[in-house]
Amino acid sequence: MPKSVSARKPEPEQQIDLTPMLDVVFIMLIFFIVTASFIKEPGVDVERPVAETRDLVKNQNILIAITQGDKIWIDKKEIDKRFVKAIIERMHAENPKGAVVVQADKSSTAEMFALVVDAAKQAGVVDIVLAAEGN
Asked: I want to staple 61 with a disulfide (CB 3.0 to 4.6 A). Which of 20, 72, 95, 121 is the partner?
Protein backbone atom coordinates (compact mmCIF):
# COMPACT_ATOMS: atom_id res chain seq x y z
CA MET A 1 0.00 0.00 0.00
CA PRO A 2 1.27 3.41 -0.82
CA LYS A 3 1.70 5.79 2.05
CA SER A 4 -0.58 8.75 2.03
CA VAL A 5 0.59 12.31 2.49
CA SER A 6 -1.02 12.59 5.89
CA ALA A 7 0.91 9.64 7.28
CA ARG A 8 4.28 11.42 7.15
CA LYS A 9 6.04 12.38 10.34
CA PRO A 10 5.58 16.06 11.20
CA GLU A 11 8.77 18.07 10.94
CA PRO A 12 9.94 19.74 14.15
CA GLU A 13 9.40 23.49 14.24
CA GLN A 14 12.49 25.60 13.67
CA GLN A 15 13.29 27.94 16.57
CA ILE A 16 15.95 30.53 16.98
CA ASP A 17 18.08 30.10 20.09
CA LEU A 18 18.11 33.46 21.91
CA THR A 19 20.49 32.44 24.67
CA PRO A 20 23.69 33.83 23.06
CA MET A 21 21.98 37.15 22.32
CA LEU A 22 20.73 37.42 25.90
CA ASP A 23 24.23 36.65 27.18
CA VAL A 24 25.69 39.47 25.10
CA VAL A 25 23.02 41.94 26.25
CA PHE A 26 23.56 40.96 29.88
CA ILE A 27 27.34 41.41 29.59
CA MET A 28 26.86 44.83 27.96
CA LEU A 29 24.53 45.87 30.79
CA ILE A 30 27.10 44.85 33.38
CA PHE A 31 29.82 46.75 31.47
CA PHE A 32 27.80 49.98 31.39
CA ILE A 33 26.86 49.76 35.06
CA VAL A 34 30.46 49.16 36.14
CA THR A 35 31.98 51.90 33.97
CA ALA A 36 29.32 54.55 34.60
CA SER A 37 30.27 57.34 36.95
CA PHE A 38 27.42 58.58 39.04
CA ILE A 39 27.57 62.25 39.92
CA LYS A 40 25.72 63.25 43.02
CA GLU A 41 24.23 66.70 42.79
CA PRO A 42 23.81 68.87 45.87
CA GLY A 43 20.14 69.49 45.03
CA VAL A 44 20.05 73.28 44.93
CA ASP A 45 21.37 75.93 42.53
CA VAL A 46 23.76 78.51 43.90
CA GLU A 47 25.23 81.62 42.35
CA ARG A 48 28.95 80.84 42.45
CA PRO A 49 31.57 83.57 42.67
CA VAL A 50 33.55 84.47 39.56
CA ALA A 51 37.26 83.59 39.45
CA GLU A 52 39.95 84.54 36.95
CA THR A 53 41.69 81.17 37.18
CA ARG A 54 40.21 77.78 37.84
CA ASP A 55 41.13 74.12 37.47
CA LEU A 56 39.06 71.10 36.51
CA VAL A 57 38.64 68.65 39.39
CA LYS A 58 38.69 64.94 38.63
CA ASN A 59 37.05 62.36 40.90
CA GLN A 60 34.57 64.78 42.38
CA ASN A 61 32.55 62.57 44.63
CA ILE A 62 30.93 64.82 47.21
CA LEU A 63 29.18 68.00 46.11
CA ILE A 64 28.13 70.32 48.91
CA ALA A 65 26.09 73.46 48.28
CA ILE A 66 25.87 76.41 50.65
CA THR A 67 22.95 78.72 49.81
CA GLN A 68 22.70 82.44 50.45
CA GLY A 69 20.84 81.73 53.69
CA ASP A 70 23.77 79.57 54.89
CA LYS A 71 21.82 76.35 54.42
CA ILE A 72 23.88 73.26 53.57
CA TRP A 73 22.65 70.87 50.87
CA ILE A 74 24.13 67.43 50.16
CA ASP A 75 22.60 64.87 47.80
CA LYS A 76 19.38 66.89 47.28
CA LYS A 77 18.72 67.15 51.03
CA GLU A 78 19.11 70.06 53.38
CA ILE A 79 21.55 69.04 56.11
CA ASP A 80 21.94 70.38 59.62
CA LYS A 81 25.48 71.68 60.17
CA ARG A 82 25.96 69.24 63.07
CA PHE A 83 25.70 66.24 60.72
CA VAL A 84 27.96 67.44 57.89
CA LYS A 85 31.05 65.59 59.14
CA ALA A 86 29.20 62.27 59.51
CA ILE A 87 27.68 62.50 56.04
CA ILE A 88 31.03 63.40 54.45
CA GLU A 89 32.67 60.46 56.26
CA ARG A 90 30.02 58.08 54.90
CA MET A 91 30.28 59.40 51.35
CA HIS A 92 34.08 59.45 51.49
CA ALA A 93 34.08 55.79 52.58
CA GLU A 94 32.20 54.93 49.37
CA ASN A 95 34.93 56.55 47.22
CA PRO A 96 38.15 57.27 49.15
CA LYS A 97 39.82 58.93 46.14
CA GLY A 98 36.96 61.38 45.64
CA ALA A 99 37.20 65.10 46.27
CA VAL A 100 34.83 67.42 48.10
CA VAL A 101 33.56 70.26 45.92
CA VAL A 102 31.90 73.11 47.82
CA GLN A 103 29.51 75.23 45.79
CA ALA A 104 29.12 78.28 48.00
CA ASP A 105 26.77 81.07 47.01
CA LYS A 106 28.38 84.50 46.75
CA SER A 107 26.07 85.71 49.53
CA SER A 108 26.92 82.88 51.94
CA THR A 109 29.20 83.56 54.87
CA ALA A 110 32.83 82.56 55.18
CA GLU A 111 31.96 81.04 58.57
CA MET A 112 29.71 78.41 56.95
CA PHE A 113 32.34 77.67 54.28
CA ALA A 114 34.98 77.23 56.99
CA LEU A 115 32.65 74.90 58.91
CA VAL A 116 32.17 72.67 55.85
CA VAL A 117 35.90 72.63 55.00
CA ASP A 118 36.77 71.82 58.62
CA ALA A 119 34.22 68.97 58.68
CA ALA A 120 35.66 67.56 55.47
CA LYS A 121 39.21 67.69 56.86
CA GLN A 122 38.09 65.97 60.07
CA ALA A 123 36.42 63.29 57.92
CA GLY A 124 39.79 62.56 56.32
CA VAL A 125 39.25 64.18 52.92
CA VAL A 126 42.42 65.60 51.39
CA ASP A 127 41.05 67.25 48.22
CA ILE A 128 38.66 70.09 49.09
CA VAL A 129 37.91 72.76 46.48
CA LEU A 130 35.59 75.72 46.05
CA ALA A 131 33.55 75.75 42.84
CA ALA A 132 33.65 79.03 40.92
CA GLU A 133 32.37 80.43 37.64
CA GLY A 134 34.93 81.36 34.99
CA ASN A 135 34.97 84.46 32.82
From this structure: 95
Of 52-61, 88-97, 104-113, the poorest mean pLDDT is in 52-61
Look up the domain containing 120 and give its range: 50-134
The CATH number linked to 87 is: 3.30.420.270
Q: Report whether pLDDT(5) > 60.
A: no
Question: How many structural domains is the chain composed of?
Answer: 1
pTM: 0.59
Q: Does residue 85 have a pLDDT over 70?
A: yes
